[in-house]
Amino acid sequence: MANREFDIVVYGATGYTGRLVAEHFVREYGDRQDGPKWAMAGRSLTKLQDVRDAIGAPAETPLVVADADDTAALEAMCRRTRVVLTTVGPYQLYGDALVAACVATGTDYADLCGEPGWMREQIDRHHAAAKESGARICFSSGFDSIPFDLGVLMLQKEAQRRFGAPAPRVRGRVRSMQGTFSGGTAASLGATMKAVAKNPKLIPILQSPFGLTPGFEGPEQPGGMVPRYEEDLGKWAAPFIMATINVKNVHRTNFLGGFPYGEDFRYDEMMLTSPGEAGKAAADAVTEMLKNPFGAKPPKPGEGPSKAEREAGSYDLLFVGEMPGGERLHYAVKGRYDPGYGSTSRMLGETGMALLSCEAPGGVGTPGHFLGEALVARLEERAELRFAPEEG
Q: CB–CB of 202/195 below 8 Å?
């Protein structure tokens, strides 16, 4: 792939999140002689021109026209680039042809998918062929699930360093999160519900923590769906809406790596509230809210917060590793910017950059499996994430 015209194509650059990814390349690499050769792609040349000008991209920035259901155009686009970054979702509606084109052409791919039913279909359909072509298909390369996938990976590396073994039990806990859900997230959830209605065979995949590890069922996992008081942290914990996808990706990273966390690994995610009765009331309120997380008027795809709102966002994640001897290890991942937009767009951009120097074999994988510490380094340098152990 070294002689391809582009390093990276941002597909969906005229959409809300795709535009933010393109802005990331302009901001971080626009004036660098050693920056990537990148292009903006979408279905409308006029809209691509408008976005290019609006974000201050150079006038010579290449523009590629390709519709999500035009197989020939997608394959032609993929043959021109080493990596495709796509924000065109819901992926179960618009992603099939692009994944197939990347697999066929040996082109690396990363997206923001949080749709486990569709992801499992792609694993079953393309994993062997992607290994053969060398294409690295990297799902969930935004807030779901990079900070969680890499947070567990870095905690386990710290556990190996300190104790000579991985932690068989890890808790992922959201200490704080300031931001909003995207319209794409709401649309993806709606598309998933419709897909389940048409194909009930998806239900076990959605319900199982091991829905993305075909052929492997690990030990019974903590549920994380009932509020609980966490004695060691001194706070109540409530269900976390993104746990259903993040937990699956963490287990897939472990699975693809040959079980560096162990085959008996147990993991869950929850959101911390506060101590006492107030904390319990807040945890109960979160549990009730999850029955209808987007309310009566969910955000529409293409909508999102202002620049000021994105820059005011942040998140703080804690990972607690529990060792067989009773020792505990704390590891933190902290991010600046709104998690669903400002931070996610930076994470997807840097996933693309890390794929350019990745030497892992092809297949359908995860950021943690393909990129690991190399992506951590990029995110700390270019996306304002911080990964560090903490005193427990």
A: yes
